[in-house]
Each structure stands twice: as C-alpha cells, then as structure tokens.
Amino acid sequence: MKEINRERMLNDFLTMVKIDSESLNEKNMGDYAKKFLSTIADEIHEDESKEAIGGNQSNIIAKINGNTRKKTLLFACHLDTVKPGIGVNPIVDNGIVRSDGTTILGADDKAGIASLFEALRYIKENDIDFPNLEIVFTVAEEIGLKGAKNLDFSLIKAKEGYALDSEDIEGIFVRAPSQNFVGIEIEGLEAHAGMSPEKGISAIKTAADAISKMPLGRLDSHTTSNMGVIQGGIATNIIPKTVSIKGEVRSHSEEKLAYYTDKIKSAVFDACRENRIQMPDGMIRTALCNIDISRAYNSMNVKPGESVLNRAVAVYKQLGIQCKLMTGGGGSDANVFNENGIKTVILGTGMSEVHSVKEYIKIDDMVTTAKIIIEIISHDE
What we know:
single chain; alpha+beta; Aminopeptidase; Alpha-Beta Plaits; 9-stranded mixed β-sheet; 5-stranded antiparallel β-sheet; 27% strand; elongated
C-alpha cells in the first residue's frame, strides 16, 4: 500500500471540526460533505429527513460506481456533534488533536469522516478495484438516531455496511443494546408551602420517592438504566404541582429490558399511591402520573460467520492490527441499519474522551482507520 496523504487528511479534519454542526444544525457540515462528494461520487441524494425531525440538513446518500461483480458496501458516519460544539478551536500537539478545553473536539464523528474521505481519494487516485459503494452521512445521531430512523432506505441497495463511529481503534463492535425511552409526568396538588403545606401534594417529593425505589445504574451484565432529566416547580413557597422526568433503560436482553422497565413504572405507581391527602369532602386524593414508554432503538447482534464481519477481521489481520470483537453499551446508526436488513458492524476510529471537552484523537489512528477502509473496500472475497 502506498502512503496515506497524512497532511491532506489532517487538514480536512481540522477544517471540519471548525464547522459548527450540533444536532439539528448540520447544514454547513452537510454542504462541506456534498462539496467533497461532488468530486468523487456518481450520484448524490438527500432524503426528506430534515422535515421529519425539525433540522436544517437531511441525510446524504452518495453512490460511487465500481465493480458490479463484487458486493455493494455501505460506509456510514454522522454529521452532527454533541454540545458544546460551537466555535471549536482544535490544537495539534505531538501527533494528537484536541480542543482548547472549552468545547468538544468533534472527532465523534468527524475523524471517521476525514478517514473515509481520504480512503475514497486513495482508491480513486491509485486505480484500486473496488465494488459499488454507498456513502451515508446521517444527521441527529447524537439525539436519538433521528436521522437514521428517518433515512430513505429505498435509496440504498447495499446489504453489508460499516459504521465509523466508536473509540477503540482495535475494536469491531458487533453487539449493541435495545433502549427504551422513559417519560414520566407526575401531577400533585398546589398549596402554599408556608401557610398550608398539608393541603398540597408535592410532585417533587413524589418523584423523589419514586426515583429512590427505581433500579438505576448498572443492573447486570446486560442492562443499565438512568433518570437523566428532572424538571418541575415554579417557586420555593409553592408546593410543586408538576414534575417531568426523562430517562432510559438499555439491555441486550429483551426480557430484562421489559422487566426493569416495569420495575420503574411500578416505582412511580407506588409513589403516587403513597403521596396522598384527604380532601374536605372526605375523598382521598393521590398524586397522579402519566408514563410514556417508547422504543428508542432495537439491539444489533452481528454473529460470527457473517461475511461483513469476516471481511473486517481478515483486513485487521492483514494489517497487523489486534482485532477485538466488542459489545457496546450504547446505540448507534448501526442498530437502525441492521434493523432494516443491512448487516452492519461498527469500526473504532480511535476517538477518545468523547462527549467531553477533554476529547482528543491521535493522528496515527486516523491514518490507521483510512487504511482499514481502503483494505475493506479492496478486499478480495
């Protein structure tokens, strides 16, 4: 293999991380991606996902025509970043790129995009024999895989794919959990907190009682749960009438996902029954609740023997990279691709300390990712 153009790839990455692209505001990043794709792709499509999710950029699907005797392959990255991702100032120091500490870097997922761009340039410039390729750039991945969930899959023909979106450069992620979203609304009864607190039912106390009884954290080797957002109350001198709680349950086991989701619901019901007062007419009034459970995404499990996995493992071995088949704790676009009949594994790109202002990536890992992509594309099955 000829040398990867390291400087070109790095400059591409530095340019991209400076483009603001927090979830639902990916238009400028989308324009940058389309400008690159116009130099290399045979077709560029955009679906109608932005209308569905309320963003300013839709998913981008590009097609690069190759050897039709080989399997069409899909490569996917997401355009959005988490917050705080506005005004990123990347710093290059001793082979590592990091932010200045006031924002995230955006290596998640722009390092994957930069490596993919360089790999595509390489196969074109070096006349590599490659299959038909489908390149998918999704939006709003970081806020619930919204882009992938609204992707126009009629535009995609590939049945095997690779998502460039995880940390460990040696990792091939073959499993990821299902997730239930949990939305809880609790309604108490308002009263003056100083003059007549006994006439009120505190929605905040009810919520606290419920949360204290919920199974939270790492529940077993398959399952985690968390209550991450609590909103309620309007003043210190008012018994709070309403509270909103948002959380999640994740598991690789559908049975355990259902079991612990039910445990959370039961904790809310019990707390509402226990927080009660007697009304002037003698009737008992309890706290009320409404619980919304919805499926955020379904699990993925690419089993040994699948050709999409065999190809990647062979390439890692060929490049002398220790290969680790890994189980992820979070969802990604790959969950959605698998659910829609595209066998997809997640390739680690070396991004580190993601979703924090300490995020960084080694330039060498970006080079390695580009090499992995090139060898997967050119691999003889």
